[in-house]
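Sat 14:20. Reprocessing the chain from the morning session after the first attempt stalled halfway. Input below, unchanged.
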Amino acid sequence: MPAQCFFQITTLDMTARSRFGAKGFRTRHAFLRAIRTLTDAGVPVGVSIAPIIPGLNESEIPAILQAARDAGAQFATFSMVRLPGSGSEVPADWLDRHVSQVKKDSVLSRIRETHGGSLSDSRPMVRMTGEGERAAQLGQLFRVVAEKLGFTSMRPNVTTENFRRVELAPMELGLYCSLYKPKPSSYPTGDTANLLAFSGWCLRMGSVFDAGLS
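Finished this time. C-alpha cells:
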C-alpha cells in the first residue's frame, strides 16, 4: 500500500463558511471530489470529522460520514474540539459575533462537559475523544453511523516493514534551513535532522496539495 490520505471535514453547511471564517474551509464539493479522485486512483482515503463542536456541528456527523462514504472514503475517525490556553479567546470572540449570548454559553458549557469541566484537556488520547456523558453520546453516534455505512476501521493498517533509515542529504538539510531559518550553530544533526527535514517536506507538499483544492 504505497500511500494513504485523510481529509479533515468540519461541516458540509456552506452557510457556515462565512460564520466559521472562510479562510480555513474548502467547499464540500472540493473535498468530496478529491476523495473520489484519489479513490478512483487506488489510494485508500479516510475522513476525519474534526473538530466536533458540541452545539454547533455535532448534528452533521451522520451527513458527513454519508457524504464521505458515497465519495469512496474507507476509513473514518473524529476528534473533539478543545480550546487550550489563550486559544479559547478566538472561538469566544467568534461566538460573540455570530450567535446569541445564550447560544454562546450553551456551546462553551457543552465543550466543558466533554473535558471534565475545562475547555481543554492535555492528556494523550483523552483530549481527542473527550470524556463524560456527552462525549460518550457523540462517540456512540459516530460509531453506530460509521458501522452502518460500512466503515470498518478508524485508520488503515500500517506497517514499518519497509522502513529504512536514511542519512540526511544536503538538499534535505537545506530544505529544513529554508523553512525554519535557524542560526547555523543550532542546525540539528542525526535523527533529529532527519525528522525535521521530513516534516519540512510534508509541510511543503501539504501546502501544494491544499492549494489544489481551492
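The longest strand covers residues 45-52.
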